[in-house]
Amino acid sequence: MHWYILGPGAIGTLWASLLLQAGHRVTLLQRQPDAKHQRIEIISSRGTSGIEPATEALSSEGPDIEHLLVTTKAQQTEAALAQIIPRLTPDAQVVLLQNGMGQHEAAARLLPSQLLWAATTTAGAWRESPTRLQLVSLGSTRIGPWGTNQMLQSDGWGALEIDLESTPDIKSVLWRKLAINCAINPLTALHHCRNSELLTDPARHERLRQVCHEVETVARALEIRLFDTPLAEQAEAVAQSTGNNLSSMLQDIRLHRPTEIEHITGFLCRQAEHLGLSVPVNQALLEQVRNLNVAKEFPPD
Ligand code: KPL
């Protein structure tokens, strides 16, 4: 199978290596590729390995695409897909492997005949440079068809050497990830702190609990089952176990990149609004992070 990867950041590069390892062909779609192939080193606790996927300019012209993996930031999904749609075959399989929610509906509108998948992963990796990927952990990955309850098999993913499960209810899995991201990401971005520092400061900790309470209210109204235990407990456990991490939103802020706030807290607030529910703590966080995005004011390290 030939997989094209749209958005070859850390997760896209990691998937390029997993798909190549499983015997697939891989092409990275890039804005300005330097060469026809790109050598990338993957550094992990098991040592260093190299991959050499093909690269191609992101363009509406080129060979047909039957398998597309989208790993862009959530907010870039529509624009990126729009560029590639003329090349997608009518029955192409398209997998969105991203943080956040809201982009799946937009993608489904753009791809009426193609088979759309949503996936989420807890894999941890970061790109030291365009040619070096640091792999922290392979984590676990869940995938399911978007907009249908049919249990289908995503082409060729069964051969990937990772903890991967298919689920008929990917929406609930995405909601669980969203709930944790609502609890941790905006607060760490605003306070410029590591995940565990949300728990050691009583005021931040209290705000985290308030965020969780509002998220649970919205999920309940939508009949989404989050966790068996309170969300705050789950978020605290994740903040603890990823204690040394800089959340992805804080990393974006530090690198002066737009954040995924509109697809995390923004998505939650839009759902609340449709339901006529009030989520003042999340609404305030949404506005504060939006202002951070605009103002680009950063406290020193
Ligand atoms: O997914 C994450 C992120 O940073 O986006 C968490 C779970 C908060 C870990 O940092």
TrEMBL record:
Domain Ketopantoate reductase C-terminal: start-end pairs: 169-292
Organism per entry: Marinobacterium alkalitolerans
All copies of domain Ketopantoate reductase N-terminal, residue ranges: 3-146
Matching InterPro entries: 6-PGluconate_DH-like_C_sf, 6PGD_dom2, ApbA, Ketopantoate_reductase, KPA_reductase, KPR_N, NAD(P)-bd_dom_sf
Protein name: 2-dehydropantoate 2-reductase
Function comment: Catalyzes the NADPH-dependent reduction of ketopantoate into pantoic acid.
EC number(s) per entry: 1.1.1.169
Keyword Lipid biosynthesis attached: no
Pathway: Cofactor biosynthesis; (R)-pantothenate biosynthesis; (R)-pantoate from 3-methyl-2-oxobutanoate: step 2/2
Known catalytic reactions: (R)-pantoate + NADP(+) = 2-dehydropantoate + NADPH + H(+)
Similarity annotation: Belongs to the ketopantoate reductase family.
